[in-house]
Structures are given as structure tokens and as C-alpha cells.
Amino acid sequence: MPVLGSPLCAAALLAFVVSSVSVSLLIRSLQLGAKKGNMTKGTAEDQDLNWRRSALLHQLNERRKEIIPLLSARGSEKKMLAESRYFPQQHQSFSAMFDYNLWNEITDGSRRMLMDEMDCDSLVGVQTGNVLGSGYTKLVLKVVLREDQPVALKFVNEQGNDMEKCLQDFGDPRGCLELVAYKLKKEIVLLQRLKHPNIIKLRGHCMEEPGQGLERDGGGRVTAILEQGYPLQMIQLLQSPWEERFRVCLGLVRLLHFLSRSPLGSVGLLDFQPRQFVLVSGELKLTDLDDASVEETPCRSDRDCLLQFPHRNFTLPCSAARFCRDLNQKRNLYNAYRYFFTYLLPHQAPPGLTHLVDHIMNSTGELRADINQTLGSFEEILLLYKSGLHLDNLPPSIIRDYTVMRGLATAGDVEYRCWPSFSPRGCVLAVHSALEGMALCSAHPQCTSFSLSGETTWSGHLLASFRSGFSHLLPDGRSEVYLRRAKASEPSGV
Ligand SMILES: Nc1ncnc2c1ncn2[C@@H]1O[C@H](COP(=O)(O)OP(=O)(O)OP(=O)(O)O)[C@@H](O)[C@H]1O
Ligand SMILES: *[C@@H]1O[C@H](CO)[C@@H](O)[C@H](O)[C@H]1NC(C)=O
Ligand SMILES: *[C@@H]1O[C@H](CO)[C@@H](O)[C@H](O)[C@H]1NC(C)=O
Ligand SMILES: *[C@@H]1O[C@H](CO)[C@@H](O)[C@H](O)[C@H]1NC(C)=O
Ligand SMILES: *[C@@H]1O[C@H](CO)[C@@H](O)[C@H](O)[C@H]1NC(C)=O
User: For the Protein kinase domain, which residue ranges apply (predicted)?
Assistant: First the structure.
């Protein structure tokens, strides 16, 4: 890591970064002024124009300043520098230790961070695909790159509210595009710095230099190339098996745990909503990071550390260092509770696990547990669920009610529906063992047999298909069929 020799150098670098802001914009506005006819300063219209330009420049400057701390070195390096006498405390967040390569990368798109990353070349000649989603700021398209790789491309949404509002305020299409593009640039920096299985993977990015763009003369188009997922459909998720819903919540908690101690410090998600996430093969991934914050909230007393939600307020302690302790972490956790856990977690939880689920609901709903403890509770549930320990009250005698036929599968099935099934047509449930399958079949009046196909879910549970009849059997090495005997004489109460 390059450590500059003197505070003077650091200051110079900082000055460079901040003062080079949109020189192009300034030049353009000067040219514009000249074109308008050699007016002496003074007309009201002129003043308004000047005011708007400087306001836009100010905004651009602010956006840039937001990115600088994200480019800075990791926590440990920060600490080392803080302790070195070269850097006065007040220049900490700006001290010249930010990754200069990354800054170049973001500002001119001239370099590649990693050899395996995709860049503008990867996008040559791709067909525009269908829209995966759009929001206030960004537009996301699905495209297929060479070698049949599906990816999601994220652009500035030129029809979005952010752009619209900027145009209203400043009336400068190029300046506004640049302003809105900063959000996407910030997101790209964050995606480069925050790598986690529950954060969407940045496959690469493309930044055309100003004037180099193919479709416009304008200010450097920015494209993020991302792993492709599917927007989170809360309604659909509500109807899916508990195991799937638990997986989403577990992924979220693992993500929040990572964010609480990330390379950038504790990260708060300021705009925390289900639409900021997508699913990639059933795994939850954060995709919208432009509203992430690594700031800590300064305070003088606990009263400054109020965490407000529509139906609940919390007051957090103001630490000795005069920051609201764990504010980012606690805000994230309560949002996870109110947007995810309350809808997804309790409903249809396995009976042997409900007490643990209730405990999580209560401790997060009251913000009594921190993210470490919450992750601990989730991992405990996962362990129990995987090991089947929560099923210890299954009656072993139930085995006598079933005949097993190995190496066979059924054909001509007469299906019935159950809920919540992995298959919309029939009754397909995740079971820990054949024994749990028997218990379920015996609990369904329509069930006369079920099969285990050898297929498993993410947690390692077996997928069992239940049915009320079939016409014949076929050889199938991986499959087992369990026939329920003497349905009429069935003992009740399973
Ligand atoms: N990698 C991806 N794969 C599939 N869909 C995605 C992907 N990334 C984003 N989306 C979809 O695109 C939408 C818009 O993306 P994003 O949330 O980043 O834009 P935004 O303008 O910041 O949105 P908002 O107005 O919600 O803040 C998302 O809500 C999501 O549904
Ligand atoms: C306006 O300025 C241009 C150069 O900037 C000059 O050539 C031209 O004569 C000026 N016109 C008037 C009306 O002053
Ligand atoms: C939360 O605090 C705000 C501001 O102090 C107050 O107006 C609101 O009524 C409080 N809400 C609840 C649910 O206590
Ligand atoms: C937590 O449990 C307490 C006591 O049982 C109860 O009063 C409270 O409403 C619960 N809170 C939540 C969020 O479930
Ligand atoms: C969580 O645990 C880690 C160590 O595993 C610790 O450094 C951190 O301070 C803990 N966070 C909280 C909020 O307790």
C-alpha cells in the first residue's frame, strides 16, 4: 500500500480529487455562456443559470466525496495510519491511503482491477435483452454474452425519477447523467470492496470515457455487469415451503453479520426493502447498494441515537467515542425483522423448531439480540433442521405400516395437492428421512405411497413425492417407493 511521505502530499492529493470535479462541466458552462452572446453579467436569467450550474457542481462534488472514503484502505491499515504521526486525526477519512488504482478505474475506466473481470470488450455486439427490473435510479437488463453466459447489465435509468428530478432542478442532461451515474459508480466500488455469497457478484464493468460513447456525445456511460438473478417475489415466497423461506432469512442474517464487520467498517443499508434483493438459485443476494452507508452517527448523548420506525422507536447508547453504538447494525437487523422475518419465518416452521423461531422473532423484534447472537440462533436452527434432531418424537412403529421397494419408480401417478409443495401440481415435500416421509403420508388421508428420488434440497433434505395411486412400476436405480399398507386399519393420531 502506498503511504505518502508527508501530510502535504496527502492534502495535495485530496485537493486534486475534490477540485478536479467536473472540469468538463465547468468548461462547458463557460462555453455556453460565451455562446449566449457577449453579455455582461447581470440579467436575471443569467444569474439563475449560473446558480443552477454551481448547484449542480456542488451536488457532483458531494457525490464524489461520498465515494472517496469507500476507496480508502482497510480498517487495519487505517488504524496503522491513524497511529502514525504523519496523519493528523481530522484528515483521517481523506488521508491519501485510498486505493489510487481503484480511483483511476472509477474515474476513467482505464484499468482493470482483476484479470478475470469483464470490461467494455465483453459487451461488444450483445443484443439488448429483456428488462429484469428498474427503479428510481437504475435500469437492469438481461443479456446473454458470448459463450452463452447470461448476465444482468445495470445502467442509469434515464427515464427514472432521479434523472427526472435532476432535469427539473438543473436542466442539464449531460450534467444530470453524470450526477445520477455517480450512484452506479458508488455501487460498483462497493461491490468491488464487499464480496460475500449474499451480495450480487460483480462480473465486471464498463466505463466509457466522456466523448467516447457510441450512442451519445455525452458524459461517459457506466455499465455494471452482474451475476443474473430474479427479483424477489414476496408473494411467491410466502407460498413456498418453510425451508426456502428460512434459507432467505438465513442468507440475510449472514449478510448483515458480514456488513457489521466489513472491510469498510459497519455498513448500514439506508433504503432496506425486499426490492433491493434478488434470488440466485434460491439464495438471497443484495443487488442495490447505492444507499449503503459506512458513516457512523456522531452523538452527544443517548438522546441523539434515536432509531425510528413506523411502529417502533429505539434509543441506542452513545459511546464514549461519541458515536451511536451499533446504529447501522441495529437498523439493519430491525429492518430484517420487519420486512423479512415477520412474513417468512414463523409460518409453518417445523413443530420441533417453533420455540427457537419464536425466540428469534422476539429478540430481533425488541432489538435485544445483536447480529452475532442472531446469526448464532439461525445457525443453531439450521444444524437442528439438517440433523433431524427436532424430529425425535416420530413413532418408530410407523415403519410397520410401510413396504419399501428399492430401485423402482412409479408411473401413471394419481397426484393430489398439498401445501406448501415444491411442485405446483403434486405433493412434493422435503423430508429428513424416510421415517418423516412415512409420518407425513400417514397424516394425509389421500396418501397411499410416496417416493424418494434421491434428489435433495439446499439443506440436504430429501424430496419426497406423495400420491394417492399409480398405475405401474418402472426400474430406477436411484428411486425408492414406500407403499402404505392396510390403509383402512390405520391407527389414528399420527
Ligand atoms: N442482478 C440482477 N438480476 C436480476 N434483477 C436485478 C438484478 N439487479 C437488480 N435487479 C432488479 O432491478 C431492479 C432495479 O435495480 P436497483 O434496485 O439497483 O435500482 P434502483 O434504481 O436503485 O432501485 P430503487 O428505486 O428500488 O432504489 C431491482 O429492484 C431488481 O428487481
Ligand atoms: C462577442 O465576442 C466575440 C469573441 O468572444 C467577438 O468576436 C465578438 O465581436 C463579440 N460581439 C459583440 C457584439 O461584442
Ligand atoms: C417515535 O418518535 C417520534 C419522534 O420522537 C414520535 O413522533 C413517534 O410518535 C414515536 N413513535 C412511536 C411508535 O413511539
Ligand atoms: C416479546 O415477548 C414479550 C414477553 O413475552 C412480549 O411482551 C413482546 O410483545 C414480544 N415482542 C415481540 C416483538 O414479539
Ligand atoms: C461479534 O463477534 C466478533 C468476534 O467474533 C466481535 O469482534 C464483535 O465485536 C461482535 N459484535 C458484537 C456487536 O458483539
Answer: 126-494
Pocket flag, ligand 5, residue 372 (CB < 6 Å): yes
Q: Which fold has domain 241-390?
A: Transferase(Phosphotransferase); domain 1 (1.10.510)
Grid coordinates in use for 255? 449478510
Domain with CATH 3.30.200.20 in the chain: 6-228
The three cell numbers of residue 325 are 453504538
Q: What is the 3-state secondary structure (H, E, C) of 312-375?
A: EEEECCECCCCEECCHHHHHHHHHHHHHHHHHHCCCCCCHHHHHHHHHHHHHHHCCCCCHHHHH
Fold of 6-228: Phosphorylase Kinase; domain 1 (3.30.200)
Closest C-alpha to ligand 1, atom 24: 135
Question: What is the C-alpha to C-alpha distance for residues 436 and 432, in angstroms, rounded to an integer?
Answer: 6
- pTM for the structure as a whole: 0.82
CATH 3.40.50.1820 fits 396-488, yes or no: no
Quick: pLDDT tens for 74-112: 444 444 444 443 333 333 333 334 455 555 555 544 444
Q: Which amino acid is at 57?
A: L
Catalytically active residues, by annotation: 271
